[in-house]
């Protein structure tokens, strides 16, 4: 054996301590066991196979479907002095041969391959001529036929690994639901593997949901207040919206690019590359932008439209803050967005059982949006995890949510729905309730019914809020395939009869005050202060120059966390620099002096 896992963690990766499970996983692999690893995005799965691959004799084979990422993963490892290579279709015949010859002469510890390559007869012959130390099957959920990332080649991986008895296998994924979990274990033959499952909590992400009144104003206010000049993703539902929001952001002086399936693949590629390589781009994207976005310093994910489900929301927001620093998941939504989603679902050609599942998914999402409880608790609860509230890092924990007794208002609203024949939407019903005698209302003679004008005590926007919350609570329903108006449900009766009470939340102001960071995040609040430091800008600039020169993304040089720690510690020499998180020996040697110089010049100019 070469050196200890901890020694490699320190000297190569520049980290002091292992995170949850990492050390146990590494030890299990070193002991020759198969392991199954379920950990959220950004929790540090890669190190679990990289370190054993560096310790064990032979080559650690990493099977990954994300060809576009391999180059970055490998160059990032090389920056740390790790002997890594990749083989995929992006290499020329000649380049591939060179990689193979480096492997044969024992110069490689880790090799990334795409599953297609693994399955070729030629590659399998090659494997037999070398020593394989381990198989890491990354994105293992690709084996699931029910998931949207299904790759048929994944089903054949065990056929290959089976020819190497005694070589440990690791299957890694961040996809949480139990069905997929079970499928991975079956299909990859991991029943006897040691299983490591982490909490899916992402403590550094702050969750926030606002009601949409003017989405552009709200988004700008959020970006200016919290994330000026930083990288982020804005998710929207359609290609047209992605394009128009991009144009508008550009006009507002924000560097923005769009990404959706309607763009030429070359353009998509360029945009993705720029997002990785530059420091402060906002990507405006549809769901087409996602899997394999490995950028650690995405500071916010904003949803201008509702995501498809809670799973989608978790995956999409999970792209923020992979480096563990404070980040935001921010969303705005409105009653009309909800209706648009309902319409899409109800009028689709899908069969009834599928539609029923979709309806339930939308209800869960709505419940999340409308909750008065800690958002983290609701989110993790959806995945079967119990989180003890309050988290103190979400909007409902940080700003008191005011509620009011809505029983009477609910009765008025529901009876108005009933008396107008269960075929009108919120706008019309609101007019009836506040006694606004429009032409349409007169035509239907709804100015003559009992509920006309009984709701003058609330404003129009308050009534909209009531209808939204009744819908969220399942006290009203709509079937957009038929009549697009509200209808009563089973649950409405006890409220109407006065047998049950209901409380509504008061809608918070749409542009909240600047956020206060609470005590448990004290280290992170330092980060927030440091971000506005001039030395930080200087170091960022230096990092960008180096990354351009080397043709690698800035975060591959150093993470933001490393830069902020440099500012806090002000290292004066190589030894002190090596104490900073994320600085390993290779990086210190390669460009450490440049950073030391920049820090020194700032000190003496003060
Ligand atoms: P995952 O594959 O689980 O999404 P990664 O392996 O890409 O996550 O790791 C996410 C980030 O966390 C990387 O920047 C990695 O260098 C960092 N990291 C991993 N392990 C540690 C550790 N023990 N201490 C500090 N940072 C770590
Ligand atoms: Zn909370």
List the helices and strands and how they pair.
Blueprint: H1 5-13, H2 22-30, E1 35-38, H3 46-55, E2 59-63, H4 67-79, E3 84-87, H5 93-104, E4 110-113, H6 115-119, H7 121-128, E5 132-137, H8 157-161, E6 169-173, H9 178-187, E7 194-197, E8 205-211, H10 215-226, E9 232-235, H11 239-251, E10 256-259, H12 265-277, E11 282-285, E12 300-303, H13 310-317, E13 327-333, H14 335-346, H15 352-370, H16 375-382, H17 395-398, E14 403-405, H18 407-419, H19 426-434, H20 439-443, H21 460-472, E15 476-478, E16 486-488, H22 492-496, E17 503-505, H23 522-531, H24 534-550, H25 554-557, H26 560-569, H27 574-577, H28 585-604
Parallel strand pairs: 1-6, 1-7, 2-4, 2-5, 3-4, 5-6, 8-13, 9-11, 9-12, 10-11, 12-13
Antiparallel strand pairs: 14-17, 15-16
Adenosine-5'-diphosphate binds at residues 15, 18-19, 22, 39, 41-47, 296, 322-323.
- Quaternary class: single chain
Low-confidence stretches: 516-522
* CATH-level-4 superfamily name of the largest domain: P-loop containing nucleotide triphosphate hydrolases
Helix content: 40-55%
Structural class: alpha/beta
Mean pLDDT: 90
Sheet of most strands: 7 strands, parallel
Task: Write down the CATH class of the largest domain.
Answer: Alpha Beta
How many individual β-strands? 17
Taken together, the total number of domains comes to 4
Bound molecules: adenosine-5'-diphosphate, zinc ion
Might you state the CATH topology name of the largest domain? Rossmann fold
The largest beta-sheet arranges its strands as: 3-4-2-5-6-1-7
In whole angstroms, how far apart are the ends? 49 Å
Tally of alpha and pi helices: 28
